[in-house]
TrEMBL record:
Signal peptide per UniProt: 1-24
Name of the protein in question: EF-hand domain-containing protein
UniProt keyword Signal present: yes
Domain EF-hand: 40-67
One protein family per Pfam: EF-hand_1
Alphabetic keyword roster: Signal
GO molecular function terms attached to this record: calcium ion binding
PROSITE patterns in UniProt: EF_HAND_1, EF_HAND_2
Superkingdom assignment: Bacteria
Amino acid sequence: MNLKTLASSLAIAAAFSVSAPAFAASHTNAEYFPFAEIMAMKMIDKNKDGMVSKKEFMDMMTMAWEMNAKKMKATGDMMTDAQFKEFLMYLKAGG
């Protein structure tokens, strides 16, 4: 791989790594994001005060719920026992 191709690849990767968290934080119906990424301080701390409020935390947990409920095709705001167990495995595994 030549230097120009490597530089282009790194620039694209950097752009995606910056835009993905912003996209996830701004879309409640976002595509799938790993739990560890969702629960990162930079994602949760919306007002960038260096602290996580209960509301900021609950907003991110809501996003995690909605992403997984959509992925598991849960009906409405309810999960079956099997779906909830799958959701808990997502949380335990860190996404």
